[in-house]
Structures are given as C-alpha cells and as structure tokens.
Design a protein that fits this description.
The protein has about 1000 residues and is an all-alpha fold. It has helices spanning about 1-25, 30-45, 55-70, 100-125, 135-335, 340-385, 390-430, 440-500, 505-555, 560-680, 715-765, 780-900, 925-940, 955-970, and strands spanning about 85, 90, 985-990, 995-1000. The protein has 14 helices and 4 strands.
C-alpha cells in the first residue's frame, strides 16, 4: 500500500511538472515581436533597412524605436492589471490611462501604414499614378507638422531622459552601497554557515565512528546470537534426550513403585508374622523357663534315681550272691531229708520270689513305658524343627508327660525301695531257709537287669540317631542357604543384564535406582550373611558344646547312666539355645526394622530428589519454550526487518529520485532568485522564450546535493545509520533552502519597496509618463513557481519527518528487544551454569556410591571367602567329632563289656550280664581289663583339667583357625570412606567355670 501511494504521488508530481513546463514554454506573440524589434533596433540604430526604399519610413521607424527605448528598458503593454498578494503587500493594476501623446502617435501610425502600403505597391512594380495629389500634399503637410511636434516632444523627452539617467545613477549608487552591505552580510552568514558545516562534518564523523562501533557491536551480537542459537539447538537436543530418558525413568519408576508397593505389602505381612512370632517366642520363652525349671528338678531327681539305681544294683548283686549261696545250701539240704518246717520255709521263699518277679516285671514295664515316652519325646523334638507352633505344643505335651512320668517314677521308686528293704530284711532274717529256692529267683532278676541294660542301650542309640538327624538338619539348612545364595547370584546376574540393557537411559536417576537396588541387595546379602554367620556360629557353639558333652561322656565312661543325665542337660542347653536363637532373631528383626526405616528414609530422600529434578526439568522446559518463542520472535522480526529494509531501500530510492527532482527544482529556483537579484544591476531582462523567468546564471551557485544509496546493506544498524545521515542531510538542505528563501523574500520585499519609491518619484516627476513607467519586477509565473516549490518542499519535509519518527520508533523497539534478548541469554547462561553444577554434584555422588558399592562387593567377596573357609573348617571339625564319637562308641561298648559290673572281694568270677540263665559264666581276666582301662583313660582323658577349654587347646588347630576367622569377621579392616558401618555382629567368647562357652551379643 505504501508503494502504491508513493507511486501515485510521483505520478501526480510528474503531471504538475509537465503542466509547469507547458506554462513556462507557451509563446507570447507581442513579447516576441517586441524582442525582435528591440534586437533589430539595437543592432542597427542609425542605418535604414535595405528593404525600405523610403527614407521617411526609416526615420519613422527610428523615431518609434527611440520612443520605445527612450528609457533603456522595455515596458510591456498590458491591457489589464492584475492584483497580486506578496507577503501582505497588494499591488493593484488598472487600465492604462490615455495620454495626450497617444492621439498623435495613432495618427502617425496610420500615416506610416499608408506610406508602407504605397512603398509596397511601388516595390511590387505597381507604378500607378495617383489621382489624389492634393490629399498627399495635405498629408505631407500634416506629417511635417507632426514632425515638428515630434521634434519638440523628442527634445522634451531627451531632457526627461537625462533627468531619469541622473536618477538612475543615484539609484545605482544606492544599489552599490546596498550590494556592499548585502555582500558583507552574506560573507558573515557564509562564515556562520561554514562553521555550522564544520560542526555538521564533525557530527557526521562522530556518527560514522559510532556507526562503525555499532557495526562491530552488531557483528559481535550476531556471532553471539549464532552461538546462542547453536547452544539453544544443543539444549533442545539435550532436552529431547532428557525427555526420553525421563519417560523411560518414569516407566522404571512406575515399575519400581509397583515393586516397592509389593515389598511394602510383604513387609506388612512379615511384620504381622514377626508380631505373631514375638508372641509365640514369648510363650515359648515362658514355656522354656518352666521346662528348664522342671528339667532341673527332673535332672536332680534322675541323678538321685541313678544313684539309688546303682545302690540297688549293688544290693541286687549282693542278693545274687546270697541267692547262689542259698541255692548251694538248698542243694546241700535237699540231699538230706527235709523237715516240714523247711518245706514251709521253702514255700514262703517261693512266694517271696514270685512277689519279687512280679515287682521286676512291673519295673520292666515302667522302664518300657519310660523308653516309649522318650521315643515320643525324640519324635516331638524332630517335629519341632519343622514348625514352631508344633514344637511349642509338643514341648508342652512332653513337659506334661514328663511330669506324669516323674510322679509314676517316684511312686515306682518308693515301691522299689520298700520291696528292696523288705527283701533285705527277709534275706537277713532267714538266710538258711531260702537256699533250696535260689536257682529259680536269680535267673529272673538277671533277665530284668539285662532288659534294663538293653533298654538303656536302645535309648543311647535313639539319642545317637537324634544327634545324627540334627546334623542332617544342619547340613540341609546349609544346603538351603547355598541354594538361596545361588538364587541371589542368579537374580544379581539377571539384574546386571537388565542394567546392561538399560545403559542408554538417563544416568542420574538410573544410577540412583541402581544404587537403591544395590543397597537393598547389599543389605539383604548382609542380612543373609548375618543369618548365615549366626547359624554357623550357633552350629559352632553347638559343636563345641557337643564336644564338651562328648568329653564329659568320655570322663564318665564308667558311669553310663550319668550320660543320660548329661543328655537331659543337653536338652536344657538346646532349649537355652532355642531361647538365644529366638532372642537373636528378635534382634535381627529389630535390625531389619531399622534397616527398613533407613531404606524408607533413603527412598523418601530419593523421591524428594526426583521431585526436585522433575521441577527443575519443568523449569528448563519452560525456559526452553520461552527461548524458542524468543527465537521465533527474533526470526520473525528479522524477516520483518528484511522486508522493512527492502521497503526502506525502495523508499530511499524513491526519496533519492524525489531529492534529485527537488535539488533540480531548488537549483532552478536559486537561478530564478539570482536572476531576480541580478535584474536591478543589469537593468536588462533577458528572458527565455515563453518561460517568464530570468536566465542569468549565478556565479556563487551552491553545489548539487547527491545521495549515493548502496545496493546492499551489511546490517540493519548500517541501514538505520544511512537513513539518519540522509535525513540529517535533508534537514540541513531544507534549513538552507528555508534560509535562502527567507533572504529572497526579504530581498523581494526590499525590491518592492524600491519600486514603490520609484513609482512615487515618477508620479511626482510627471503624471503623463507614470503609466508607462509602472514596471512589475517580480512576475507572477516566478512567484507561482516559487510557491509550488515551497509547497512541495514542505510536503516532502513533513513526509521525511514522519518517516524519521517511524524509523526512530522502530530502532527503539529493536534496541529494547535486543536488551531483552541479552537479559534472557544471560539468564539462560545462568541456568546452564546451575544445571552443570548440579550435574557435577550428582556425578560426584554417583561416583561415591559406585565406590561404596564396589567396596561392599569386595567386603561381600571377602566374607564369602571367609565363610567358605569356616564351612570347610566346620566340616573338618564335624569329621573330627565323628571320629571322636566313633572312638567314644567303641570305648563305651568296651566299657560295657568290661567295667559295668564290679568284681567281688573274694576274687570270684563275675557273671556276664548278657549270658543266659542256664549257661555257664565266662572267665574275664582282671589284668587285661585294668590295662584296657588305663589305655582308654589315657586316650580319652579330659584335656583341660588345668582350666583350658578344648576349643582353645593347642592340640586342636581347626578350632584355632575357626576362632581366628571369627575374630577376623568380627574385626574387619576399617575403611575411612565407607558410608555405613560394618554390618557384622561382634561375638566375644569366654569359658565359664564349668568350661562352657556363652555368647554375648554386643
């Protein structure tokens, strides 16, 4: 639209110029004739024309020419005067007044026309004899009179001309003075203008330097903008990658959250189970306390029963001896004739023997019941390893059964004591009467005792089988632990594969999650290792206790029944171990709770960090969107700037053309003004044909202003600088033109004043010639041309000023946007620096976590190696214990064969317990028995009579190695950069006064 309006304006201006040129080039016939006549008269004033044959016609023509140039100035003949307004002064022109000389001039012109016609006819060859000679004479007389009158008038006019010349000289002198004053003023004004030009040149130089500085700044800003665009592209690519990683991490987080929820559910279930187990453990602890008390009471009673049993066996041996003696006596008496009294005594003895047999059968039945109850107790102990609740119930049932058995055993012991006392009394009262009935009685007692020994052996075998079952259970538990470790290793491998597959994901959050997983793994593995260590330590303690029990059994080789009491003590110790295990498990549950709380705290921290990262990501996205919007705006503004630059270039071209036209017009106007100034000096107006403007050139013409507009601008600022320079130049030119026009106006006013004074002088001199002397020095055409030029200049000036204001507003907007962009780029740089610093911090944390995880893995491998060594040593110790146990079994079997029955004082051979009733007794050498006992006591003697425990003896290297490994596990090497403490539980071993090892958990 702007281009079309400008084109329309240019077309209208061209039309106006064409009209002006047509007006200026239109010919005026009167003026042309007068100029031709003046030229001819000026060239040949005295010589008559060659074509005019009549000298009178030449004289008349000379007179007319003298009349026309009597003043030396050509006066135009105007029919009507025009009214013109020129700066508030009105010049009114009316019809020319008729003077007295006009009539005479008309008559002369008629006569001259007649003469011209006669001469023409004569010249053309028409020699006609005029018939009107008197008329010619009269005319000639009139002409002579007219000539006389014209001579008089000529004389008068010559006098007037001389006066006018004097006046002209005076006016010329005044004009010279005014010229000098005007030239002085003009020189002063030129000096001021030159100073202003120098100031303008300096300002232009400053503007050029500023322009160069702005160009350099623009180049720097363009480079910075390119760098920022490249950085913004990099940031956009990074943001896209971050978005992708964030989406992947959100997926992984969702999966982890689901897993966490499942883990929380499992934790809740485990907490419930833990609470139930705590309640059960409290119940079990109460029951075990009661069982310990009952077992202690039962052990005391059993010890008493065993001692009574041993005394009863001694008494039974005495009774066997007495029965043998009685049998011998009965045989001796049976050979003799018996008396009725003896028969009665024999009957009485048989009845007593029957009673004793019945009592023995009852005792055997009670022993069978005890063995059956012991078998049930062993089965119940095996069932305890499967389920905790069943164990508790079985223990309670066993306690009840033991209490019942205790009461029954008390009753039976009381009965046995009463019977034994009765038998002793009876045997002491009537030794002689019991001799014939002796052979039948001892056989039954021996059978009962053998049955009891067999039952005791069965109980020993059952206890051994139970011990082997416990060993098998321990081995199964170790296998289960190994399988769990293998499963954990497989899970770790699968997790490592998954982590290797997900390498392309975001490193920060992935590493956090991997840290979580590794920490949880490490915690679970540490927990498992703790459990495994606790189990191994418990197994080791059990093994040491069993070794102590075996050594105690080796000490009590001769007292087999004391071993049963020790087994009951072992049962009590196992109950204590169960208690300790329950306490350890409670502590482990507390540790697990604390670890779970720590893990939950870590998870909360990680979730808070993830939320912070999400917030930072949203902020970065917002900043990126703002940057993208700003970049789009900049691109749009650059496109608009390019379009506007093209528009401005077009406008500049148009303005250059307009300026060229205006400069042309200004030059023409200056030439016209200079012609107007030069007219009073030369007094001759040499006009160009038909333009109405004087054409004298001015020597001090101002140089033509030309604008060289470059085709391509390097930058927008360069274009703006060029526009500002062009506008400043136009403003300077406009000011110069305005000043020059003002001067011309003042000069025109002075001229009009001078003309008015001349008119007054002419009116005062002679009223007859005042009309002919009314001269219009400033023509209408010149005034119209100047006025049109001024209007055009004013319009162009207003347009240029509006364009300049618009360009200034545009430049201010661009500067404001550039400032905004620089501020936003600074903020972007600050955000990038913050992001890099946070990323460096996260990298450091990740590096520290990786180091900690690697150290945990090393610790885990070391613990695994130590645990493998422990397992090997424990297996070695188990083999050694089995060897000791085999030796112990061999020793007990040999002791049963040799030292179960004491020899009598009279040196008679003892009867073998396992022999039948009717067989003969085997001979046993006491020397061999004593030698074998010495050897066995030497080999199986208790090694720590001086207070040293077997676990710490110098003869057991495996125990030493086990203790050394346990110390190494308890006191690992400290690392200064570890994040958590050592997860191992320290154990301190100490031997009691009773050579027992108790574990103190710190």
């Amino acid at each position: 639209m702007a281009d079309e309006s400008r084109q329309n304006k240019l077309a209208s201006a061209k039309k106006m110029l064409k009209q002006f040129q047509q007006k200026s080039t239109a010919p005026t016939p009167s003026g042309g004739k007068k100029k031709k006549k003046t030229k001819e008269t000026n060239s040949h004033p005295d010589t008559p024309t060659s074509r005019s044959p009549d000298p009178i016609q030449a004289l008349l023509k000379g007179l007319v020419s003298d009349l026309h140039r009597s003043n030396g100035v050509s006066f135009p003949s105007l029919g009507t005067m025009k009214q013109t307004d020129y700066d508030g002064m009105k010049i009114s022109t009316g019809d020319s007044k008729s003077l007295s000389s006009t009539d005479s001039l008309r008559q002369l012109s008629e006569q001259l026309n007649g003469l011209v016609s006669q001469t023409n006819s004569y010249v053309n060859g028409e020699n006609v004899i005029s018939t009107t000679s008197p008329e010619l004479e009269s005319r000639f007389q009139e002409l002579a009179s007219a000539l006389d009158s014209s001579n008089l008038t000529n004389k008068q006019l010559s006098t007037k001309i001389e006066e006018l010349k004097q006046q002209n000289q005076e006016i010329g002198n005044q004009l010279d003075k005014e010229k000098k004053t005007f030239e002085q003023k003009f020189a002063k004004e030129q000096g001021a203008l030159r100073e202003q030009l120098q100031v303008h040149i300096q300002t232009i130089g400053i503007l050029v330097s500023e322009k160069s500085e702005l160009q350099t700044a623009l180049s720097y800003t363009q480079q910075a903008a390119r760098q920022k665009t490249a950085e913004s592209e990099d940031l956009s690519m990074r943001l896209q990658s971050v978005k992708q990683r964030v989406t992947e991490l959100e997926r992984t987080l969702s999966s982890v959250s689901t897993q966490q929820k499942q883990a929380e559910k499992l934790n809740k279930e485990l907490e419930k189970e833990r609470d139930n187990l705590r309640l059960e453990s409290l119940k079990i602890s109460k029951n075990t306390d009661e069982l310990k008390q009952q077992n202690s009471e039962l052990s005391e009673k059993l010890n008493a029963l065993i001692s009574e049993n041993a005394s009863m066996r001694l008494e039974v041996g005495d009774l066997h001896k007495r029965l043998e003696m009685a049998d011998l006596m009965i045989q001796q008496f049976s050979s003799q004739s018996g008396t009725p009294d003896a028969n009665q005594q024999l009957r009485m003895m048989q009845e007593e023997r029957d009673q004793l047999g019945a009592q023995l059968t009852q005792m055997s039945e009670s022993l069978q019941q005890l063995s059956a109850e012991r078998d049930q107790y062993v089965e119940k102990l095996r069932e305890e390893g499967a389920v905790w609740q069943e164990r508790v119930q079985q223990l309670s049932e066993q306690i009840q059964l033991l209490s019942q058995e205790k009461e029954s055993a008390r009753i039976e012991v009381d009965k046995l004591e009463t019977r034994v006392t009765e038998l002793l009394l009876a045997s002491a009262a009537e030794p002689t009467e019991t001799e014939p009935l002796a052979p039948a009685g001892p056989s039954e007692v021996e059978l009962a005792l053998r049955q009891e020994c067999e039952k005791l052996q069965q109980e020993l075998h059952s206890l051994q089988s139970r011990y082997q079952a416990q060993v098998q259970d321990n081995s199964q538990l170790s296998r289960l632990n190994q399988e769990q470790e293998e499963r954990l290793s497989e899970l770790e491998k699968t997790l490592q594969r998954q982590s290797d597959d997900n390498v392309d994901k975001q490193q920060i959050l992935e590493n956090m999650q991997s840290d979580k997983a590794t920490i949880s793994r490490a915690l679970t593995q540490n927990r498992q290792l703790k459990e495994h260590l606790a189990e191994l330590q418990n197994g080791f303690v059990k093994l040491t206790n069993e070794n102590l029990e075996l050594t105690n059994g080796l000490q009590g080789e001769q007292h087999v029944k004391k071993e049963l009491a020790k087994k009951l003590g072992q049962l009590q110790e196992s109950l204590g171990d169960f208690k300790e295990q329950l306490a350890a498990k409670g502590e482990e549950l507390q540790l697990l709770q604390s670890q779970r709380d720590e893990i939950s705290a870590h998870l909360q921290q990680y979730s808070a960090a993830y939320q912070q990262l999400a917030i930072e990501k949203e902020e970065i996205q917002r900043q990126y969107l703002l940057q993208a919007q700003l970049m789009d705006r900049l691109q749009h503004e650059e496109v608009q700037g390019k379009v506007s630059a093209e528009m401005h270039l077009k406008e500049l071209q148009q303005s250059r053309e307009n300026l060229e036209l205006l400069t042309k017009e200004n030059q023409e106007l200056r030439a016209q003004v200079l012609q107007i100034r030069s007219e009073p000096e030369s007094r001759v107006l040499s006009r160009i044909e038909g333009d109405g403007v004087e054409s004298d050139a001015y020597e001090g013409e101002t140089p033509r202003t030309t604008l060289v507009i470059p085709e391509d601008f390097e930058s927008r600022e360069e274009m703006m600088a060029f526009l500002n320079a062009a506008i400043s130049k136009l403003q300077g030119e406009r000011e110069e033109v305005e000043r020059y026009l003002g001067e011309q106006k003042r000069y025109c006013q002075d001229l009009l004043l001078q003309i008015s004074e001349l008119r007054r002088q002419q009116m005062s001199g002679s009223l007859h010639y005042s009309a002919d002397l009314s001269v219009e020095n400033v023509p209408r055409e010149v005034y119209d041309a100047l006025q049109s030029a001024m209007d055009k200049l004013q319009l162009r000036f207003t347009d240029l000023m509006q364009e300049r204001v618009e360009l200034k507003d545009r430049v201010e907007e661009l500067e404001h946007r550039c400032i905004q962009l620089s501020g936003e780029t600074d903020t972007i740089g600050e955000y990038i620096a913050l992001y890099q610093s946070q990323r460096a911090i996260l990298k450091q944390r990740h590096h520290e976590k990786e180091e900690y995880i690697s150290r945990l893995a090393q610790d885990k491998e070391e613990m695994k190696a130590k645990l493998l060594e422990l397992q090997v040593l424990v297996m070695r110790l188990v083999t050694e214990r089995n060897e000791w146990y085999g030796k112990f079994v061999e020793a007990t079997s040999s002791l049963r064969e040799v030292g179960a029955i004491e020899l009598p004082e009279n040196g008679e051979r003892p009867m073998e317990l396992g022999a039948p009733a009717n067989d003969t007794l085997e001979e046993v050498s006491l020397v061999e028995d004593s030698e074998q006992e010495k050897v066995e006591t030497e080999t199986y003697s208790f090694p720590y009579r001086d207070g040293s425990s077997p676990a710490t003896s110098s003869e057991d290297p495996t125990a030493k190695q086990i203790m050394q490994l346990l110390r190494e596990i308890q006191n690992p090497q400290e690392r200064p950069s570890s994040l958590l403490q050592n997860p191992c539980i320290p154990f301190f071993y100490r031997a009691d006064e009773h050579d027992e090892v108790r574990i103190l958990v710190v």
